[in-house]
C-alpha cells in the first residue's frame, strides 16, 4: 500500500499548493491540508455539494463538507455565514460548483502522472451539474482541511470513475515493476581512455648542423627502442617494427 500512500501525499501537496495560491495569499487565510488518503468507501459518502465533472478520460465527482464551504465563503466575501443550521444559499451552491471544478482538475492532473514530481496537463472539465453521493465501494481521494476560523476540520472528497482508477493502477504498476533491461556498465578498464604518444628517437645534433639543413637533406637514423608516454610520463619501452608497410610498436616492457 505504500504506493497509494505516496500518491495521496502527492495529491495532498497539490491541494495545499492550490489553497496557498488561491485562498491563503489572496485572502489572508490559513487553510491547511493535514491529511490525505486514497481508499474505498465502506458506506455512502456523507456531505453536501456533490458535483460531477466530465473529462476526456472519464468523470470525477467532487464534494466538500459544508464546514469547508462555509469557511471558504466567509473568507471570500469577508462576512460571517449562517452556520451549518442555515439552509444552503444559491451563492454557496455556485461556490461549491466553482471550486469543485478546480479541485476535480487538480485531481485529474495528478491521476494522469501517478507519483511523478510534477502533475500532468488536462483540458478543463465540463460541469455536469449536481451528482449523487458516491456509493459504498467507490474509490475516493479524501483530504482533511483545517483553518483557525473553522469550528472543526472538514473533508474534501473526489470520487474516481473506473477509467480514472484504471489509469492510476497503470501508473502505480509502472512505478512498482523493475526495469526489464538492466543498464550495461562497461568495466572501468574499458571506460577510461588515455592518449598514448610514442617517442621514436632522440638524436643529438649541433646547432650548426640544424641551421645547415635544407629541403632534400636526409638524416640517418636507427630505430631501436621507443618510449611510450601518457601525459608526458614514460610508462613503457617498446620495439619499433614494420608491418604491412606501417611502423608498429611491439615487445612492450616496463620503463625503468
Briefly summarize what is shown:
With 256 residues, the protein is an alpha+beta fold. Helix content is 34%, strand content 28%. A six-stranded antiparallel beta sheet has the order 1-5-6-3-2-4. A four-stranded antiparallel beta sheet has the order 7-8-9-10, with no helix packed on it.
Describe the structure.
This protein is α+β, with helices and mostly antiparallel strands. It has two domains: 2-176, CheC-like (Chemotaxis protein chec); 191-254, Roll (Surface presentation of antigens (SPOA)). The chain is 34% helix and 28% strand. The protein has six helices and ten strands, in the order H-E-E-E-H-H-E-E-E-H-H-E-H-E-E-E. The strands form two sheets. The chain has a six-stranded antiparallel sheet. It has a four-stranded antiparallel sheet with strand order 7-8-9-10, with no helix packed on it. Strand 2 (48-54) and strand 3 form a beta hairpin. Helix 1 crosses helix 3 and helix 3 (90-113) runs parallel beside helix 4 (162-176). The longest helix has 26 residues, at 2-27. The two termini are 65 Å apart. The model has no long low-confidence stretch (mean pLDDT 84). InterPro entries: FliN-like_C, SpoA-like_sf. Residues 192-249 form the Flagellar motor switch protein FliN-like C-terminal domain. It comes from Rubrivivax gelatinosus (Rhodocyclus gelatinosus). This is Flagellar motor switch protein FliN-like C-terminal domain-containing protein.
Amino acid at each position: 500500500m505504500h504506493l497509494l500512500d505516496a500518491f495521496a501525499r502527492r495529491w495532498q501537496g497539490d491541494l495545499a499548493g492550490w489553497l496557498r495560491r488561491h485562498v491563503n495569499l489572496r485572502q489572508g487565510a490559513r487553510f491547511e491540508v493535514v491529511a490525505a488518503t486514497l481508499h474505498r468507501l465502506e458506506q455512502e459518502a456523507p456531505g453536501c455539494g456533490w458535483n460531477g465533472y466530465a473529462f476526456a478520460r472519464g468523470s470525477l465527482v467532487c464534494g466538500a463538507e459544508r464546514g469547508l464551504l462555509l469557511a471558504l465563503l466567509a473568507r471570500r466575501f469577508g462576512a460571517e455565514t449562517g452556520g451549518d443550521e442555515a439552509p444552503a444559499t444559491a451563492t454557496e451552491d455556485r461556490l461549491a460548483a466553482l471550486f469543485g471544478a478546480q479541485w476535480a482538475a487538480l485531481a485529474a492532473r495528478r491521476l494522469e502522472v501517478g507519483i511523478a514530481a510534477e502533475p500532468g496537463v488536462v483540458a478543463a472539465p465540463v460541469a455536469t451539474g449536481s451528482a449523487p453521493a458516491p456509493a459504498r465501494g467507490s474509490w475516493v481521494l479524501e483530504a482533511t482541511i483545517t483553518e483557525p476560523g473553522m469550528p472543526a476540520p472538514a473533508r474534501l472528497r473526489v470520487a474516481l470513475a473506473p477509467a480514472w482508477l484504471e489509469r492510476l493502477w497503470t501508473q502505480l504498476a509502472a512505478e512498482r515493476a523493475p526495469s526489464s533491461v538492466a543498464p550495461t556498465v562497461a568495466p572501468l578498464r574499458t571506460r577510461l581512455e588515455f592518449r598514448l604518444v610514442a617517442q621514436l628517437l632522440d638524436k643529438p645534433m649541433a646547432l650548426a648542423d640544424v641551421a645547415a639543413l635544407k629541403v632534400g637533406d636526409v638524416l640517418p637514423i636507427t630505430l631501436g627502442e621507443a618510449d611510450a608516454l601518457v601525459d608526458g610520463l614514460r610508462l613503457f619501452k617498446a620495439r619499433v617494427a614494420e608491418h604491412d608497410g606501417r611502423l608498429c610498436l611491439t615487445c612492450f616492457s616496463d620503463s625503468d
